[in-house]
Specification:
330 residues; alpha+beta; Rossmann fold; OB fold (Dihydrolipoamide Acetyltransferase, E2P); 2 domains; 6-stranded mixed beta sheet; 24% helix; binds adenosine-5'-diphosphate; binds magnesium ion
């Protein structure tokens, strides 16, 4: 059943946290909800789950309007970064917590522990589990009452990189098996790209952009989205040499792959091609196969990838594919 959030607004006192937000997620689809800290991601999840009150809007699961239902009647699962497991209960009792009245409680818990690969952990104290294991218990507990929608709020935020990778793969395959709409909050583009079918970007409580990850990354419509997805370089058109700037005003994206290094410290006898631009190396980050350099060209800081060994303050010549430079709205 499809999750449909229409015209959702949330206000804390006089402070608007969300304004007229619309989101639609189909069964089996994972939507990554992205945005800077304070953009309203958690408020959206809490409002949809029924933890905070909405000012306007409706939340529907299939043709069921759940806007005015109590939390437990909505059949929406919500999982947080802090696992919020009960320390005095063992693994099985934590998972069984939300299904006290379930007729097949025992088999259901066994089924869920198998799903998250924790069979045999039934009687373990949750305090004796690793962070990744605790997170899988939390996932099993949230899935126990068979929610029709799942919300995950930065579920891997507190784990180290290697564990995040493994758990991300596990969680994605478990969630996909459920065949329900999933909204997954993350501020990490790598995580979003690994898990999401669609991305919705929130900015100051308003939907800033939405679309498939590849489309948003390739052609970000706004400067906010380009920055959030770690696109480089987002610069003001006015800081660029006129040949690159074209007719653009305001923020533009000069994709890293559109900037090419032509020459480093060229000898006086070198003849610069007509499209060569002078630049100065300002910063270099060695990244194994290539380095990522920030060069200053006119007043703009542009990023380029190169296998050459550059050093700070070196004079270089670059070319920029002006056709790849795209205007961004605010
Ligand atoms: P995010 O999860 O994207 O970081 P939040 O939804 O937590 O953003 O917060 C959105 C805005 O609402 C922020 O400005 C935050 O300070 C404010 N806010 C969040 N929760 C409350 C609350 N309980 N009372 C007042 N303001 C809040
Ligand atoms: Mg949050």
């Amino acid at each position: 059943m499809t999750l449909t959030i229409e015209n959702l607004s949330v206000t804390y006192g006089d402070v608007p946290a969300l304004t007229n937000v619309n989101i639609k997620v189909d069964p089996g689809e994972i939507c990554a909800l992205m945005g800077r800290s304070g953009s309203g991601k958690s408020s959206l999840l809490r409002a949809a789950a029924g933890i905070v009150a909405t000012t306007t809007g409706t939340i529907s699961v299939g043709d069921r309007d759940v806007t005015n239902l109590a939390i437990h009647e909505r059949r929406i699962g919500l999982m947080f970064q802090s696992y919020a497991l009960f320390p005095h209960l063992n693994v099985a009792d934590n998972v069984a917590f939300g299904i006290a009245k379930h007729p097949d409680r025992g088999p259901r818990v066994a089924e869920l522990l198998a799903l998250v690969d924790l069979t045999g952990f039934e009687t373990r104290a949750v305090g004796d589990l690793s962070g990744g294991e605790q997170q899988r218990v939390a996932l099993a507990r949230t899935l126990a009452p068979s929610p029709e929608v799942m919300f995950l709020d930065e579920p891997l935020g507190s784990l180290d990189t290697a564990l995040r990778q493994t758990l991300l793969t596990d969680i994605t395959s478990i969630l996909t098996t459920m065949n329900i709409p999933v909204v997954y909050v993350t501020h990490d583009p790598t995580e979003a790209f690994a898990i999401a079918d669609s991305i919705t970007v929130l900015h100051r409580g308003v939907v800033n952009s939405e679309g498939p990850p590849r489309v948003l990354w390739t052609t970000p419509p706004t400067a906010v989205t380009a920055r959030l997805l770690d696109r480089e370089s987002v610069v003001e058109a006015a800081t660029l040499p006129p040949v690159i700037r074209g007719d653009n005003t305001g923020a533009v994206l000069v994709p890293t792959e559109a900037v090419e290094l032509l020459a480093v410290d060229p000898p006086k006898t070198w003849h610069a091609p007509a499209d060569a631009l002078e630049a100065t190396v300002r910063h270099v980050v060695f990244a194994g196969l290539s380095s990522r350099a920030t060069v200053q060209c006119a007043d703009a800081m542009l990023t380029l990838d190169t296998t050459r060994d550059l050093t700070r303050n070196q004079k270089v010549y670059i070319t920029v594919d002006a056709a790849a430079v795209t205007g961004l709205s605010a």
